[in-house]
Structure formats: C-alpha cells, structure tokens
Design goal:
Elements lengths: L2 H17 L4 E7 L17 H8 L2 E7 L4 H10 L3 H4 L24 H7 L3 E7 L25 E5 L12 E3 L2 E2 L9 H14 L7 E6 L11 H5 L9 H14 L22 H31 L6 E7 L64 H7 L12 H4 E7 L9 E3 L3 E2 L1 H11 L6 E2 L2 E2 L9 H4 L9 E5 L2 E6 L2 E5 L7 E4 L15 H17 L11
Parallel strand pairs: 1-7, 1-8, 2-10, 2-11, 3-4, 3-7
Antiparallel strand pairs: 2-9, 4-5, 5-6, 8-9, 12-13, 14-15, 15-16, 16-17
The structure holds calcium ion (CA).
Calcium ion (CA) binds next to loops.
Length: about 550
C-alpha cells in the first residue's frame, strides 16, 4: 500500500479531532416554578420553545436544586453545596461560615473557571448571591457578576422586584433604571441575552447564564400574555392537578404507581374564586413570556450559526412557592391618589415599590387583581401545590416538591438521543463539573491566594451518552429541612426538630409511605451520612444554636 494515502487519512483524522470546537454553554434558570409547570413536563402552559428543546434533546426526570433562590444560585455557580460557598440561607450574615450571605473566598464561579479556559462569559438576569446590593464603595461589589468572572452583565443584583421596575437593576457594574415605558424584565433579560450572542466574537466559545425571575412573585405580566389564559383555570386546582398528572404519566415522566400528593383545599371550598383564577392566569402568562424570550435566544444562536454546537440547559431554582407574600390582609394602601412620577433615570431601591414609575400607588392584599405594575401579590399555596404535581411540599422544603426540577439538555452536535428521558439522579453541583469537562478546563485549587474547595459534583457528559453514574449521596439542608439520597433511598425531615422520614423513591416518589419504622437500620445509616456531611459542609453548627 502506498504511504501517501495513509498519511493523508491520518492527517484528516487528526484534523477532525483537533478541529472539533468546544461547545458554547447556556444555562437558563427560572425562578419559583414547580416540576410540572412547563409543557414537556406536563403543563398546559404554552412553552413551545422549551418543548422543542426537549424533543431535540434530553429530559432529566430526577434532577435537583436546593429548594430556595440564593442557595440554589450559590450551588449552581460554584459547584459546591450552598453552605460551603457561604450561602446556606439568604443574603444576610447569620454569624456562621455556612451562612454569611455572600460568596466566600474558598469558591470560584463557573464563569471564573471558564474564563481560564478561554471562554467569554455573559450573564443576564438575577444574581442574588451577595449581601452588598447597594454598596457605598466600589469595593463592596467584590461578589458582583463582573467581579466573579462575567465579561458582560445585565440584570438585578437582588431578586423579587417589580417586573416593570426591578430594584438593583444593573448593567455591568452600574445601577440603572428602565427607560422604556413598556419595560418588562423578562423581555429585557431575553433581549440582552440575545444581544450578547449576536455581538459575541466567534474566535472564542462562550458560557452564558440566563437567570429569569419568572414566575417568582409579584404576579406581573403583559395584558396580551394574560389574555391567552383567561378562563383556563375556571375548573380550579383539583382538576388542574389531575390533568397534569394524567399528562405526566402518559408521556412517561412519572411511574403510574406514584400517587398524587394530598390536595391543600378543595376548589369547591375556595373563596374569592375570580381572584384565585386570575392569580394562576398571570402566573402562566409569566412562564409563557419567558418561553417567548427563550425563542429569541434560540433565534440569535441560529442566526449566528451557533445553535448546533451550543449546550443549552434549562432548569428551575426551587419548587412552586407557597408564600402568600403581599396576598393576605386588607387591601393597602387606602389612599390611591396619584403621586408625583419618578424622575427619568431615578433608581429603584425597593423590592416592593411604593409607586409605579408614573406615580400610581402599588396595591397589596387579599383580592388585589394581579398583572399590572401597580399590584404586588403572590399566587398562593393551592396553585403551588398544582405546580408541584405530583409531589409533596414546596419551596423551602427538601421533600420532592421543594427540590425537584426539570433539566432539559439540548446540544445537536454532542447529544445524539432525541426526545429521550434520563432517570439518573443529578444535582446542581453537577453543572460546574459538566462545564469543566466540556471546556477542558482545570478546576483551580487556589484562587487569589485562597484555597478553593474541590467540586462536589460529577460531569453529566456520560449521562448525555446514556451511561449511568455510580450511586453517590446527594445532600440538602435549608432552614433545618434536611435530606440525603443514595440510589433509590431518601431520608428527609421538616425543620430542625422534625423526625426523619424514609422513602424508597423508586416505589414512592410522592413520599407518602414512610418506612423509617420498618427499616430503622437503613434510616440510621443514612442519618449518619447526613451528619458527617453536615459537619464537613458548614451546615452545622446551625445559626443561633452553636450546635
Ligand atoms: Ca426561587
């Protein structure tokens, strides 16, 4: 055989191997949404973009967050458990290393790591992992996105603001105010993310983090989106839960043996039905708007020829939210007289603004019809129960309703299965490991002269290809709510003093058959794992107890 063709073939092979460009990675996170709130996970809400990503990629059925906004963001960004990064609770310093309310010196963000591997890093949306929202000096911005590895940032440092005038709105390092009278935060996040893609120099790959605040309270949406859901929830939450359960079973997402969690209240007993319906109509409109925005991000990828080699991940930060924030008590304020409008460029510092930018008082209380800028209410526990179909509990808790999230993974060039499920359990901490793997990055042991804790997660790349990971313990703690999962077994408790409950999730993911008494040896073994982790991971001592 002549040498030349072999040589040419070898060169061609080498070229194929070395030329395979590393993928862009986009992590899209939504806020306060339940496991069944998007179409491809059983919802009636129109999410055609997410559904297309799911049918062209993978849906993970047992992926987990940490049950609350700040800890989830800390864990996602750093690949550590939240307490290890200093954010076991929210953005307040509770006097212990695990609860500083600010990222500590012993963690790095995905953006910082990807930057060292030659990625450009962009972020649009809610940050919520520093306590310095309004620092007196520039140095106080040490944990803002630009200081934590992102090259460009548009979004909010805090969370839960008005969608029409969000507090702590920031471009790069500068606090700003919305200037467009038709401003809507979800649209602004989508459009800035699409712009970052369009303006990206394709010499380098990019990592982008898109953190929507939909569908966290307040229930704020645009009239055209709300109109689509008018009357959709007239039958109430009981029927909605049944409807979703049937769809989830039919699509193969849930085992038919898993029953539906108990209902919070019969719809027949509900008071203020027009108000209750309106709360869910607006909630759905917020999700619908987010999906429309994601379609613009996808369009920007396609237009710039980057869609096929971009890994798009979609997930949620905690389960449906039962907090009746702004939705209880008498309607307030009583005086609805118009006040002077805010000045152009005037910054919004309040999570709950007192007035709209054009001077209308913002109303709260039971019965305030949600949607417009001059209202600030939540959607309530009964609808949150429907969001979390078929699971128990909510945001804050670490039963399946609080911590289960969809995870869609779409990457035409890297994932060959289309429309398949992945039942392998996974956790937020795996996202850092996956990014490091795909970027060929070196996870640092030191950063700015401080030691960096090792990553807690595993790369999901083998799971993309259909392989299972080795069984490993996954852990949770938030506000004393505790859990550990190994394989099919989960030990879980509510509150610091609540008893441990044991479930076999393969048989009973709804967590309705507590096996703690019938299998005490297994419960003891899991409890011991949790205790060892809690000490190692800065969970204990709990704030305020010293224990
Ligand atoms: Ca949240």
């Amino acid at each position: 055989m002549p040498l030349r063709p072999v040589f040419v073939l070898l060169c061609a092979l080498c070229a194929t191997v070395t030329a395979a460009p590393r993928p862009n990675i986009i992590v899209i996170l939504s806020d306060d949404m339940g496991y069944s709130d998007i179409g491809c996970y059983g919802s009636e809400v129109a999410t055609p973009t997410l559904d297309r990503l799911a049918s062209g990629g993978l849906r993970f059925t047992q992926f987990y967050n940490t049950g609350r906004c700040c800890p989830t963001r800390a864990s996602l960004m750093t690949g550590l458990y939240p307490h290890q990064a200093g954010i076991g609770h929210m953005m307040n310093d509770r006097g212990h290393p695990g609860y500083r309310g600010d990222l500590n010196a012993h963690c790095v963000t995905i953006a910082q790591v990807m930057g060292t591997a030659g990625y450009r890093c962009y972020m649009a949306g809610k940050w919520h992992i520093t306590k310095t929202v309004r620092p007196a000096k520039e140095a106080g911005k040490h944990n803002w996105p630009r200081q934590r590895g992102f090259d460009r940032f548009y979004g909010t440092i805090h969370g839960a603001g008005s969608f029409f005038d969000p507090n702590s709105l920031t471009r790069d390092n500068t606090l700003i105010a919305p200037s467009d009278p038709n401003y809507y935060y979800t649209d602004a996040i989508s459009d800035n993310a699409a712009k970052f893609i369009s303006e990206h120099d394709r010499e380098k790959p990019f990592f982008m983090y898109v953190a929507y605040t939909a569908a966290h309270w307040p229930m704020h949406a645009k009239p055209s989106d709300i109109a689509k859901y008018k009357g959709r929830y007239d039958a109430g939450w009981d029927e909605l839960r049944d409807e979703r359960l049937a769809r989830m079973r039919k699509m193969g997402l849930l085992d038919r043996a898993w029953p539906l969690s108990p209902n919070v209240q019969d719809w027949a007993q509900a008071r203020n039905k027009p108000w209750q319906r309106a709360r869910m109509e607006v909630y759905s409109a917020m999700i619908d708007s987010m999906d429309q925005g994601i379609s613009r991000i996808v369009a920007a990828l396609k237009k710039t020829g980057q869609f096929d080699n971009t890994l798009l991940l979609f997930l949620q930060d905690n389960g449906g939210c039962q907090e009746e924030f702004g939705s209880r008590g008498a309607v307030r304020p009583k005086n609805l007289a118009r006040r002077p409008a805010m000045k152009p460029g005037e910054l919004q510092y309040s999570m709950v603004p007192k007035i709209t930018r054009d001077g209308r008082p913002v109303r709260q209380g039971l019965g305030v019809m949600p949607g417009p800028a001059d209202t600030y209410v939540a959607y309530g526990i009964q609808w949150a129960n429907a969001s979390n179909t078929p699971f128990r509990e909510y945001k804050h808790f670490v039963h399946e309703g609080g911590i289960s999230t969809p995870l869609i993974a779409h990457w035409p060039r890297g994932i060959s299965d289309r429309g398949k499920f992945r039942h392998e359990p996974g956790h937020l901490v795996d996202i850092m490991a996956t990014c490091v793997d795909l970027a060929g990055a070196r996870y640092p042991t030191q950063w700015n002269k401080s030691s960096v804790r090792p990553m807690e997660g595993k790369s999901l790349v083998p799971v993309f290809a259909g392989k299972d990971l080795q069984d490993r313990p996954l852990y949770w703690e938030h506000e004393g709510n505790r859990a550990v999962r190994v394989g099919d077994w989960k030990l879980v408790a509510k509150g610091r003093k609540g008893p441990w409950e044991l479930y076999n999730l393969k048989a009973d993911r709804s967590e309705l058959k507590n096996l703690a008494k019938s299998d005490p040896a297994r419960a003891t073994e899991l409890k011991s794992l949790w205790n060892t982790w809690a000490i190692r991971a800065n969970v204990l001592p709990w704030p305020g107890t010293g224990r």
